[in-house]
Amino acid sequence: MRKNQVRILIFFFLIVLSILPIYASKSKADVIPLDSTGAGNFIPMEDCSLIMTNASVSFEINYSKTSNKIFLSFNGNYTIYNPAESIMMTLLAPFSDDFKNLESTCMIKSEDNTIPFSFRERDLDYYPWDEYISGNTRKLLVIEMDFPENDSIELEYIFDAYLNIKDYQDSVLRIFYDVGTSRAWNGTITERVEFNLYKKQPDSYLNSSYDNYEFMIFDIEDGQSYVWEWKNEMINTDSVYISYSYYSEWRYSFGKLFLILFYPVGIISLIVIVVLLRRRRKRKIKENFAS
User: Fold this and answer.
1) In whole angstroms, what is the distance from residue 25 CA to residue 21 CA?
2) Fewest 10 Å CB contacts: which of 2, 27, 162, 252?
3) Residue 54 belongs to domain spanning
4) What is the pLDDT of residue 3?
């Protein structure tokens, strides 16, 4: 009976020790939630010969502690070239539900002419470019345009929005931009993505050295600018982002202290139990042999 109890105790320690490293990884500041918050590139509704030759986008992000909000202004400029005969094409721009007030402030222009658009829920059963959109809470901005033969059209996409910080308590807020959607177009692209952050700076951001982009950080008045650039190439990265951690500080500190203290104690306790168990077994063998 006691042997079974010891085995159960050892099994319990092994489970606890295996869970603790997972808890530690989830306590770090750069954990990304499943549902991401972002605005996306324009995507053609169907396969076509159109080429997005250039994209230059910027986020102006202002952290307001008094209002418990993060205010965003987005400005995107895109150049789309049609190398074939003229065509009417439907374009989609995905964005997250988390952006408040976006639909009422959004505007799309081409050569100073306002282009009509509509919003709709993401159609998972039909959407042809689903592989280029990350996250689950996405809506679609939809426009229809004529693209003349052997000509380029420049689009400007702007909006103002805000995020409620209280919606991200004990989690991480990641604001990202879908650069991977450039693969939905033919040819290569020259692209610049800029996050201008004022006051509070991010806890983490994308800066991977293995991909083919140039990353820079500049000082600006009352903040910093985070910039990613690609020059005439096929983009491999799916998205760029900045993120803020809103984990409760005392919970994180307690979890870290608990991990630091309990993890070695657990290992030592397990070793002691194993040693005592082996000594007990040897003692019983000797007693049985003596009798």
Assistant:
1) 6
2) 2
3) 37-245
4) 52
